[in-house]
Amino acid sequence: MRVRRSLKWLVMALLLVLLLGKSGLGTPTPVSAPTVFEQWRSHYQNQDYEAALESLSPILESAEVSRRNRALAYNYRSLTQQKQGDWPGAEAAIERSWALVAPERERSPLAAPDQRLLAAILTTRGQVQFARGQAAAADESWHRATTYYRQLDYEPGIVGGVLNQAQALQELGFLVGACDRLLSLVQGSLKRSSQSASEQVSSCQGLLGQSEPRMRRWLGEMALDGSPGLEISLLQGFGNTLAAMGNLAAAEMVFDEAQRRSQRLPGWDDRELALDLGNLYGAKARRYQQLGIFREGFDEARRQSLESYQMAETGTAEQRLRSQLNQVSLLVDLDLASSSNPNPDSQAQEMVQGFLTRLPSQLQQQPLSRQRGYGRVGLACQVLRCDRPPGETALQAWDVSAAAIRQLLEAAQADAEGLGDDRLAAYVWGALGRLEASLGNLRQAQAETEQAIALAERTGSHELLYRGNWQLAHLREQQGLDSLDDYQRAFESLKALRFNLTTLDPNLRFAFREKIEPIYREYAKTLFDREQMTQSELRRAIEVMDALQIAEINDFFGAACLEVRSHELGKYSDTTVIYILTFANKFEVILETPDQTLKRYPVSFSEDIDTFLDSVQLSLISGFNDKALLTRLYHALISPIEDDLAQINPKQLAFVLSGKIRKIPMAALYDGQAYLIENYPIAISPSLELLEPRGLRIQDIEVIAAGRETFDSLLDQIESQPEFRALRLEEFANINLKFVEHELTQISDLVETKTLFAEEFTVDRLEQEIQSLNYPIVHIATHGRFSNFAEDTFILADRPLKMSQLADILNVKDPTRRHDLDLLVLSACQTAQESDRAVLGMAGIAARAGVRTIIGSFWAVDDYSTAWMMEQFYQGLKSFQNREVQVNKAQALRQAQMAMIRGDLGPNYTRPYFWAPFVLIGHWN
């Protein structure tokens, strides 16, 4: 008892001393701001955040402390409260700090100490704004901070500021802009090297197709003054942005360089880099799965991803949590049942089930943060499949109750409230709506989805808006209500996003056909389900399918590489535009008249259209029953519009095709007496914005003609190179092209030609000749393949030249665009049997490279007949030149095809197999 009383008096005495000191009745110890800041720093680094806050208390409002030091103290207080998850407190502290430096903000010019102070406070202010869902405000704060750091020439601040800005821009959907900012910083570090300066690119899109040696040399020369750790951080940020854009090859080279530098830096913690590598290899594995490559490439990428994540698990609690959440996403995408993986992995199912059981409690142990909130809703969404079309959930597949998912989402809702993050709240409400829909509670699901949309509108999140409106459209349809307006709003949000579908799920672009494409087709189907359509509704349907083709081209390249706008083709008075859209059991044929009126012809079909079109393609290649099937297709697509065509009497037809009908050459449609090409020249247009249609001038018929005949020795040289293993080059072994030299010789006899044959046909030589700006036509006769994706699409020169690289080579460096290539001919490439994207792939190359027209083939054709037909085509071009009239490339191709139909080469070459696969894509003049 006496001990307790003594302690009581001691405590009272201490309190009295403190009270007297504060009242001015005692003698307080003078406050030293530097000492306080040193104490705070020690506590903060030791993660003793309560002690860190307590150490700042004496100077926050002390009259003896300068206003600048008090501002700095409030800045430190905000940093500490962020670590504790006290976001309202962190916001109040940083705003108090910002208010205290009001005089400095108005002063001009600013002294260096004032610039440093403002930059530090703005950086912290941006962190708070970003964490509370205010990405635009955060970008502004970080931009101003970076400006001060640039004035100070303080490299760590500049790099950190630009990395922060890139994060905010990516959150806002401006992914290319985020990447370009980082690229400018990387390139700025190369200016010491004249060699690298000549190889600089103007944007991240320009990195597509860069050769690996050039890219690695370029990265290896990056240097920041005495800051190897800073270089690694910059490379990581740059690599992450490239990976989010889908440029995985460039991202991997960037991460390789970051890893190389980190290994030379003693004590550098690689676990954050391991997380980044896990994400990269996971994206590669998803892409391989989409490509259908389940051999070395897929297995290796999956293994590397899981190993990287497991390395990251040995780091901090935050890194362990992020690693495990990412593993769940990876395993669900790669190893569980889906349309791209019909054979689920039972071991992966058990692993994911274990994560679903453990992760909610691990998330609960984390302080309030964006990571915790998004982690919770993201985990729930793995079960609800929020990233897939509405109606697809996996709730029944897991040993997780609906109540447990609701509890997880309600906890995420509380996180959103605590953070003041409306965007996170919108994400949660959308997931709750999906949960209720899976349970059959459609009215409740609709109310929650509408709440998600309202919040997403407030934050301007187009990704959440397209998902929310798509979900609402499905819910309305299930209740028998009209969904057209909901689809329109979802479509408008997708248009606003353009190709930046990466804000919440960077892997969306690696499952485009499963997760994104359905919204376009469902919207178009909803429009076409109406018996009568107005002109504006028909225009809207065409706009939707046009936007789908643009999105598909970006998916073909696997990267955010192309922005194009719709183009009115109907303004060409001598050309009739015919749109053909395919659905499960009907065609929609739309003809545009000379006065730009749209006439609709819905054509019901008695069998599954995709299956029928597959059989048409097989019959064209085999020659079995081809005329019967082509006649049936003619009656479905052309017979309904024959009277219109007779009245219009167009000079040529331009087809805009959507769906598997793209696999069928329109020239081969047969009315029982003649093929369609016998009546009209034909062009295929993807309805993309065409370049200035000046046409091929008669004096411009000058050609680079390149090709090779033999491939055995070439394949022996390159088959061991890892980067080409996935291309399945063995199918070209022992298949030589005996008439390529003859083909090139005949071209050179007709028109002025630069010939690159056999060993002269190298990638470097081709690029050199194209960049000379002397040749508007490039003709390539060599093996190649068009597949559904650019990674699997290539031609063979001295090495495989992938289409993204070819597009960059063809894109001549002429700012006036007077020397853009007018025509690219690929006379010997074949289209993969499973591909319905050859037309879009060729159109994408044209759009990226500035080529007005491409002529390519749907399948590999007899080498002899191809050489003869190409000779006829160039004779047609030459005839326009001789007559000094406007060159019509579609008419020249038609004349060559007509010659084969007439039997000019002999009766064995009259079948469509020999002449029909050659299609003209783009502008016909």
The gist of it:
The protein has 925 residues and is of the alpha/beta class.
From the structure above, extract its key features.
925 residues, six-stranded mixed β-sheet, 38 helices, 15 strands, 58% helix, globular, disordered N terminus
Secondary structure elements and their pairing?
Blueprint: H1 2-23, H2 33-45, H3 49-60, H4 67-84, H5 87-100, H6 102-106, H7 112-131, H8 135-152, H9 155-172, H10 175-188, H11 194-197, H12 212-220, H13 228-245, H14 248-263, H15 271-291, H16 296-312, H17 317-335, H18 346-364, H19 370-384, H20 402-419, H21 422-438, H22 442-459, H23 462-478, H24 484-497, H25 512-515, H26 517-528, H27 535-557, E1 575-582, E2 586-592, E3 598-604, H28 609-622, H29 626-637, H30 642-648, E4 652-658, E5 682-684, E6 702-707, H31 712-718, H32 740-750, E7 752-757, H33 763-770, E8 777-781, E9 784-786, E10 794-796, E11 800-802, H34 803-810, E12 823-826, E13 830-831, H35 838-849, E14 853-857, H36 863-883, H37 889-902, H38 912-915, E15 918-922
Parallel strand pairs: 1-4, 4-5, 6-7, 6-8, 8-12, 9-13, 12-14
Antiparallel strand pairs: 1-2, 2-3, 9-10, 10-11, 14-15
Helix pairs in contact: 2-3, 2-4, 3-4, 4-5, 4-7, 5-7, 7-8, 7-9, 8-9, 9-10, 9-13, 10-13, 12-14, 13-14, 13-15, 14-15, 15-16, 15-17, 16-17, 17-18, 17-19, 18-19, 19-20, 19-21, 20-21, 21-22, 21-23, 22-23, 23-24, 24-26, 26-27, 27-35, 32-36, 34-35, 36-37
Name the strands of the widest sheet in spatial order. Answer: 7-6-8-12-14-15
Largest sheet: 6 strands, mixed
Gyration radius over CA: 32 Å
Number of helices: 38
- The amount of helix comes to 55-70%
Mean pLDDT: 84
